[in-house]
Write a structure and sequence with these properties.
By secondary structure, this protein is mainly alpha-helical. The chain is about 60% helix and about 5% strand. β3 and β4 form a beta hairpin.
Length: about 750
């Protein structure tokens, strides 16, 4: 039975703590009793010269009694360790549930408990109230509902595991104490997980749900994850188990089974990342990585006599898509996979099932996200996208590649004539259509987008320092990540290199380096206002590369909207840092307005040219992307300011990842959030809402809306400090800086930017 909300809030865990202490005392006393029995009566019995009945009955009785006392000590030790672990974990969870309960009371929320580890948070009806809640109130209820459900689910799993371990430790026999013994709660959970996993696809949905729960809440516990993977056997047995489960869960139209299999993929991936991290005290031996490489190109027989035998990497790829992996484990696999693709781009795609329909087109990637899972290149790039340190090392120029033979062994003395960055970003790279669909069909051609999408995710992790879909990211740039970003800007300054599925990632990368794009337009001068106090972790694009990069990604709606909003936020923070009481740093404010307008002018010119090349449909796509993001910021989750960056949460309507944007180094965080909200709200009202009827009118509307967007930080700043447009030199100077910067951006894009693509 699941732990319920109020019971967990109110339960007195101190009683469990007392029980732990009592069992510890029992263990200590039984240890003494066992030693006395062993050193006393057992030792005397062994030395005695028994005769007659005593030689059999009495000696046997003494031996059995000594063993029972020892078994009682073992059983008590097991119970104590399991209860002690449970007390520690439940105490932590109770602190979390009580903190959530305090917020529930603050918001006036009613929690409906479904008694299955989940709850529903609603606002109690008040007589005469229309029950209309603000967006902030609705978001608070949704967040608390998810948080409380997660805590209760975790507590329920611990409760069930403890109950099962205690039953097995006791055994149910009042006259025999020799039963299961556990060194920890982890060990008991590993035992149960292994029991369930041994059933394979024969697991019922209820059993698979239980297995998922155990792995989910213990995946990052290295003792558990390492023990669990060892319990499955070795690398080949792991691939066989996961491969069979993938096929079982993706065949047919059983949506519940598919959902459970997707959870298993995520949970097992997270656990594998933990188990293979050499920095963890408990971890799998390094030989497992070599074994996975050896199995990577070997057919794995999942079922006797099956016509299709997938390669090891095709199966392993499904697990690599989830979890934060250590570079020592994932990078050799990634290197091997890229080298195999370089030698033969169709090596893995030739080994797909010969038959199948849309319900089977998930392969060994039940998630269905970014490819079907037959091509491990896409899978391993997704893995790097969740592993920032590994991705950074993989794409760094400082990395010395290890060359592998086809069987995964090291090819001693061999070198590569390419870097992995250059290989994966070259114009003619042959991305596989990771699907069962015919590669030359329209749908099959679209399947090729998965590779560039995954590459974008990996580059995000490498340049930004956090997983591309991290819900609570922290920007972490250093010299290596900045150097990779410089290569990104140079490479994708050529629009022929930019696939549409990659553009959103480039937009988020550009947004996260918006400070350096501003600095780049100042030719990275040391006397620039945007010169960083510590240049480590900052990219030096130079003016021409910055213009080409902005021009190139400005041809894509999602990237355009990311850059436009990022510049508004960065410009707002930069202006906010120039006001100190009644004093304003006027020259700096003018430069901020000018440079911000230049960036908007560049991407607007790029957008206008692209609309001329592609017409009404492209304009509508730009408008839709901008509207989704600005409305989400204005009316949705807002902008979170912390640790020198502004976080824009994912856009619910399209489900893309969130965006992290640097704020100006000297901007105070107190009033910044409100000022940004004002800027975004004002500019949202002036943005282009609908496409015009002619190309000429469309372009005019782009410039009008873009100029208004560029002006929004300046107008909010002037309003805050009472600066009039037509009174005094400063107001006019700001207007001239805006106009001059915007025109300079238009001209710079025309002269140095990328030609439109169609």
């Amino acid at each position: 039975m699941a732990v319920t909300y109020m019971n967990f809030v109110e339960v007195d865990l101190a009683k469990l703590g007392t029980s732990v202490s009592d069992w510890k005392n029992t263990v200590d006393k039984l240890e003494i009793a066992a030693k006395n029995a062993r050193d006393g009566m057992q030792a005397k019995s062994d030395k005695a010269r028994w005769a007659g009945v005593n030689a059999t009955v009495t000696r046997s009785f003494v031996t059995k009694t000594t063993k029972e006392i020892a078994d009682l000590h073992t059983e008590a030790s097991s119970i104590h360790r399991v209860l002690d672990d449970a007390y520690t974990e439940l105490t932590t969870l109770q602190k979390q549930i009580r903190a959530a309960h305090a917020e529930v009371q603050k918001w006036g929320i009613s929690v409906r408990d479904y008694h299955d580890g989940t709850v529903h948070c609603v606002y109690a009806h008040i007589g005469g109230d229309a029950d209309v809640r603000t967006q902030e109130e609705n978001e608070a209820a949704a967040e608390l509902e998810g948080r409380i459900s997660r805590i209760l689910s975790h507590a329920s799993e611990i409760d069930a595991s403890v109950a099962r371990a205690l039953r097995r430790s006791h055994g149910g026999d009042r006259h025999n104490a020799g039963h299961s013994s556990y060194e920890s709660l982890d060990e008991a959970q590993v035992e149960r997980a292994a029991e369930l996993a041994r059933r394979g696809p024969k697991m019922t949905d209820k059993q698979l749900t239980e297995l998922n729960s155990i792995i989910k809440w213990n995946a990052k516990d290295a003792d558990f994850s390492t023990g669990f993977y060892k319990s499955l056997g070795g690398p080949e047995e792991i691939l066989e188990f996961y491969g069979r489960m993938s096929l079982d869960g993706t065949e047919g139209d059983d949506k519940e089974r598919l959902a459970l299999t997707r959870q298993l993929q995520r949970n097992m991936g997270s656990a594998l990342a933990s188990a293979t991290d050499p920095d963890n005290k408990s971890h799998l031996p390094a030989s497992w990585g070599a074994a996975f490489r050896k199995l990577g190109t070997q057919p794995i027989e999942l079922y006797p006599g099956a016509l299709h035998r997938p390669y090891g990497y095709q199966i392993l790829g499904g697990l690599l898509r989830y979890g934060t992996y250590d570079a020592k484990f994932i990078n050799p696999i990634a290197e091997h996979v890229v080298q195999l693709h370089h030698k033969d781009p169709r090596f893995f795609m030739r080994n797909r099932p010969v038959t199948g329909g849309s319900d089977l087109d998930l392969g060994y990637n039940p998630s269905g996200k970014v490819g079907a899972g037959y091509d491990p290149l896409t899978s391993v790039l997704e893995g790097l996208g969740h592993s920032p340190e590994a991705a950074k090392k993989f794409f760094s120029d400082d990395m010395t590649p290890t060359v592998y033979n086809e069987d995964g062994t090291v090819k001693k003395g061999a070198t590569l004539d390419y870097t992995y960055f250059d290989e994966l970003t070259k114009k003619d790279f042959d991305w596989p259509a990771d699907s069962l669909l015919h590669p030359h069909s329209d749908e099959g051609a679209q399947a090729r987008d998965g590779g560039p999408d995954a590459l974008g995710h990996a580059l995000e992790a490498a340049t930004l320092g956090y997983a591309y879909d991290d819900p609570t990211p922290t920007l972490s740039r250093d010299a290596t990540s900045a150097a990779i970003m410089e290569k990104v800007a140079q490479t994708y300054g050529d629009p022929k290199n930019v696939k549409e599925s990659l553009a959103d990632s480039l937009g988020r990368m550009g947004a996260a380096y918006i400070d350096d794009l501003n600095w780049g337009l100042n030719e990275n001068r040391r006397d620039s206002l945007f010169y960083p106090k510590n240049a480590d972790g900052h990219a030096q694009f130079g003016s021409e590369n910055a213009i080409r990069f902005l021009s190139s990604i400005g041809q894509h709606p999602d990237a355009y909207s990311e850059i436009s909003i990022a510049q508004q936020i960065y410009g707002t923070s930069a202006l906010e840092a120039q006001g100190h009481g009644d004093s304003i740093k006027e020259p700096q404010a003018r430069e901020i307005v000018r440079t911000g307008a230049e960036i908007q002018g560049i991407i607007d010119q790029s957008r206008a040219d692209q609309i001329q090349a592609e017409g009404l449909a492209k304009d509508a796509a730009y408008n839709k992307s901008l509207q989704q993001k600005t409305e989400w910021i204005k009316f949705g989750a807002g902008v979170a300011i912390a640790a020198g960056a502004a976080f824009l949460p994912p856009v619910a309507a399209v489900g893309v990842a969130g965006t992290l944007i640097p704020v100006f180094m000297d901007a105070g965080q107190g009033a910044l959030t409100q000022q940004i909200g004002t800027v975004i709200g004002d500019s949202a009202e002036t943005r282009q809402q609908n496409s015009a009827e002619t190309i000429h009118e469309q372009r005019k509307e782009v410039y009008r809306a873009g100029r208004a967007t560029a002006a929004s930080p300046m107008k909010a700043f002037m309003a805050k400090y009472g600066i009039a447009h037509d009174e005094g030199d400063f107001g006019q100077d700001l207007e001239e800086a805006l106009n001059g910067g915007y025109s300079r951006g238009n001209d710079g894009e025309d002269q140095l930017g990328a030609l439109p693509t169609s």
